[in-house]
């Protein structure tokens, strides 16, 4: 018994722990711990730093107003939903303002958020998921459709770009079907050869389209957002 113990200890001593410096998880941890938005998100009770991207877009362009109906696509863990709920007063926390509605969907689980209708574990690209959203709209039209959807990265840049562009078009097609005239649309993508075409296609339906890169979007990331305003309506 004691022999096997000492053998084990010898073995432990000879094991060298490899440094994880330079590994992607090490870089991620270093970046997270030095990122002011991560700290700010914790202090302000947002589920993740992404909240600041929507806050910045809304502070600049005023797309969210009390009483509006918002669809949040790719909502997990939920920070955009938290922002939308407050800005459209979906939780009725301001009794002086009209109450809005927020419907949030994600492939992954979303923990409940007071004031939001949560559709977790649902793939937005599936027709039955979109039918569910329409049921929850209960005859209303959307004033704002926001999509922060991102596919799981494969590491093959062209394929990742194709996958996110596909999600953008699914969101656009849906937004066009269910939006009120004058509505807004925000969609996240990674800047690529298809950005211009997507912008052109959004402008077929929205009077004003512009690319936006919030300060809280990491400068070393290809992430940008396209913002469409003044939905022209379907004739
Ligand atoms: C960057 S995260 C969204 C973060 C979120 N906006 C927030 O502030 O908490 C991207 C999300 O898109 C979701 N997603 C990707 N493809 C999807 C799909 N087909 N249907 C629904 N959600 C999808 C992922 O599951 C992931 O949670």
TrEMBL record:
InterPro entries: RNA_methyltr_RlmE, RNA_MeTrfase_FtsJ_dom, rRNA-MeTfrase_E, SAM-dependent_MTases_sf. This is rRNA methyltransferase 2, mitochondrial. Belongs to the class I-like SAM-binding methyltransferase superfamily. RNA methyltransferase RlmE family. GO terms for cellular component: mitochondrial matrix. Residues 46-231 form the Ribosomal RNA methyltransferase FtsJ domain. Keywords: Methyltransferase, Mitochondrion, rRNA processing, S-adenosyl-L-methionine, Transferase, Transit peptide. Its main location: mitochondrion. It holds the Pfam family FtsJ. The lineage of its organism: Eukaryota, Metazoa, Ecdysozoa, Arthropoda, Hexapoda. HAMAP family: RNA_methyltr_E. It comes from Asbolus verrucosus (Desert ironclad beetle). One of its GO terms (molecular function) is rRNA (uridine-2'-O-)-methyltransferase activity. The active site is at 188 (proton acceptor). It is found in: Mitochondrion. One of its GO terms (biological process) is mitochondrial large ribosomal subunit assembly.
């Amino acid at each position: 018994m004691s022999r096997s113990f000492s053998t084990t200890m010898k073995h432990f001593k000879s094991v060298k722990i490899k440094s994880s410096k330079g590994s992607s998880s090490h870089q991620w941890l270093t970046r997270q711990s030095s990122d002011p938005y991560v700290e700010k998100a914790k202090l302000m009770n947002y589920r993740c730093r992404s909240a600041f991207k929507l806050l910045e877009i809304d502070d600049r362009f005023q797309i969210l107003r009390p009483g509006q109906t918002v669809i949040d696509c790719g909502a997990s863990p939920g920070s955009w939903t938290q922002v939308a709920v407050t800005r459209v007063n979906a939780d009725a926390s301001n009794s002086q303002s009209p109450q809005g509605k927020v419907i949030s969907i994600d492939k992954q689980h979303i923990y409940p958020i007071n004031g939001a209708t949560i559709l977790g574990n649902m793939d937005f690209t599936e027709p039955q998921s979109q039918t569910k959203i329409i049921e929850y709209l209960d005859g209303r039209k959307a004033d704002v459709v926001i999509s922060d959807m991102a596919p799981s990265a494969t590491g093959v840049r062209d394929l990742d770009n194709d996958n996110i562009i596909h999600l953008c078009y699914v969101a656009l097609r849906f937004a066009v079907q269910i939006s009120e005239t004058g509505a807004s649309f925000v969609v996240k993508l990674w800047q690529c050869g298809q950005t211009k075409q997507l912008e052109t296609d959004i402008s077929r339906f929205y009077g004003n389209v512009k690319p936006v890169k919030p300060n809280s979007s990491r400068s070393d990331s290809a992430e940008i957002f396209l913002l469409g305003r003044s939905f022209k309506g379907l004739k």
